[in-house]
Amino acid sequence: MARILVTGASGLLGLNLIEEAVRLHEVIGVDRGKLIHAPFPILKLDMLDPGAVDSALDSTQPDWLINCVALPDLDTCENNPELAHRLNVELPAQMAKACKSRGVSFVHISTDAVFDGRKVGFYTEEDAPNPLSVYARTKLGGERAVLGENSDAIVARVNFYGWSLSGRRSLAEFFHHNLTHGKSMSGFTDVKFCPMLVNDTARILLKMLEKGLSGLYHVVGPQAMSKYQFGVEVARRFGLRESEISPKSINTSSLIAKRSNNLCLSINKLCTDLDEVPPEFSTGLNEFYTQFQQGYPQKIRSYQQP
Known about the structure:
It is a single chain. The protein is 41% helix and 17% strand. The protein is an alpha/beta fold. Helix 6 (171-180) crosses helix 8 (227-238).
């Protein structure tokens, strides 16, 4: 059993990661105040406060720190690049350095968005990134800062979906919410990615720590699909009307930040070093559906202040 400190505990990954980790480990979440009724210990702290990183580590004495803090909204990053840099570059670098000096294993979460999408096929960890947005540039800066401060750290490029505290954080929730409320929407046919259920992402990260891995890894699903296809698959699994999802090109969207149309990442390195293959997309989607049936979304939303 390890003692794990998870920053960004109220986020989509942070919360689901804790739900998975508490089965085998002692877990402490760091949150600024959203998690009022959580069934696990919470350290109420703003990690951007001076001295917050050292305070969190010294007061909890973890074996592992998993950093799920980020400014993830692409358009918000475009409008506030200074905050994006603080959260996505400076803070992870501070954590990496502090963990290195204390002998704490560190995991930093990055993104598949660091590539420009011009490659045909799947990107490997050896391919040169070319970020298109403030978000992607700062996340790449965070990767380099973390590994520059702490070569023993794990940097995981991810793309996940699942149930969140707000019910609106993941693409799967977006499709499910709109379809169940009779709202039409569109899905990009020319943006491809490798989605993974967030609970599977969490389990894999824990296995990587248990195995003592380090360095840069792609931690995404084994199957590539368009975001339109993803929405159709969600609709079909829940028995909803896929006809309410209209195919659309990202080139006709009104999004502010530039986005890559190829987010497909190779997981060969992960499979080799972990000696296992992540679950198929259908397996993750089935679990996402089962969670809904069993009231999992309502369970985690009960952790926040009414």
